[in-house]
């Protein structure tokens, strides 16, 4: 059996899809999570308990891996966690480190994006063999912007902001390919098939959930919104994703989720 690929965040939205892709391709996988494996999880993979915010268990998680796909994210700790991961990887065999990042993080001054940019730089300067893929927002995140407001009488969207959401399983396919290939540095961004206004995406989400609400675009001030209005979160020249937002919503409705 080949040496495993470690997937940090292997229990998350992207991580779960990636683990499924790797296993389907006959790759040995080790999932990292802060929690022990659930009793009903019968996927044929190894499991490593580790909290990247503390580091206990990290060397064991990295032992004898050929690559690491770093999908774990914690809104407050991504820089420290990534530093800890790269330092431990240097100590334990220099595996290929593949990082998932976000389109436009150098232009949109959100604190989370600044942390992702710092994490990218840590990886690039770590001395490890590395690959970084940036993508636009996954469909589920864009749908969540609306579903979190479902109990309100109106749904608000930022006026003039557009998104180009992408199907997470397509991102997982690409990461699985990158993790098995030679380190490639910063690879071209991956974006969804359509650039859509936030209001239009909110209406589609409501329609698919059978909810009737008025969608109200709100003019918001500030640098973050200005950069989003200018399209810094989009990559229309990299619209390589094929799964549309409506296809995602329909699949979600079939699975009984709203
Ligand atoms: N969502 C998007 O639209 C989008 C778009 C582009 C890029 N990305 C990037 O894709 C990555 C994955 O996003 P996602 O939406 O799949 O995230 P998610 O569903 O929120 O999953 C986060 C994962 O991180 C793990 N985690 C959190 N804190 C941890 C810690 N201290 N130590 C170890 N593991 C920890 C969690 O594992 P446990 O809870 O099991 O410990 C979980 O598996 C992120 O880097 C994100 O920036 C996301």
From TrEMBL:
Q: Which residues cross the membrane?
A: none
Domain NAD(P)-binding intervals? 9-140
The record's section on Pfam families has: NAD_binding_10
Query: What Gene3D superfamilies would the database entry show?
Result: NAD(P)-binding Rossmann-like Domain
Protein known as: NAD(P)H-binding protein
> Which species does this protein come from?
Streptomyces stramineus
């Amino acid at each position: 059996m080949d040496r495993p690929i470690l997937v940090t965040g292997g229990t998350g939205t992207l991580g779960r899809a990636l683990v499924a892709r790797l296993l389907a391709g006959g790759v040995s996988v080790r999932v990292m999570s802060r929690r022990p494996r659930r009793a009903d999880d019968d996927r044929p993979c190894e499991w490593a308990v580790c909290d990247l915010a503390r580091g206990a268990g990290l060397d064991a998680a990295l032992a004898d891996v050929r690559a690491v796909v770093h999908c774990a994210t914690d809104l407050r700790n991504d820089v420290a966690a990534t530093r800890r991961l790269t330092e431990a990887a240097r100590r334990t065999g220099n595996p290929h480190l593949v990082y998932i990042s976000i389109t436009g993080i150098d232009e949109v001054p959100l604190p989370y994006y600044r942390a992702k940019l710092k994490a990218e730089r840590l990886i690039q300067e770590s001395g490890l063999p590395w690959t970084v893929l940036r993508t636009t927002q996954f469909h589920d995140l864009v749908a969540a912007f609306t579903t979190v407001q479902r109990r309100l009488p109106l749904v608000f969207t930022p006026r003039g902001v557009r998104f180009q959401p992408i199907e997470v399983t397509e991102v997982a396919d690409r990461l699985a390919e990158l993790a098995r290939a030679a380190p490639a540095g910063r690879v071209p961004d991956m974006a969804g098939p359509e650039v859509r206004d936030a209001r239009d995406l909110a209406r589609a989400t409501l329609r698919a959930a059978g909810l009737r609400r008025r969608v109200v675009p709100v003019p918001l001030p500030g640098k973050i919104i200005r950069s989003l209005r200018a399209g810094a979160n989009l990559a229309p020249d990299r619209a390589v994703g094929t799964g549309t937002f409506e296809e995602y919503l329909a699949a979600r409705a079939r699975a009984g989720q709203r």
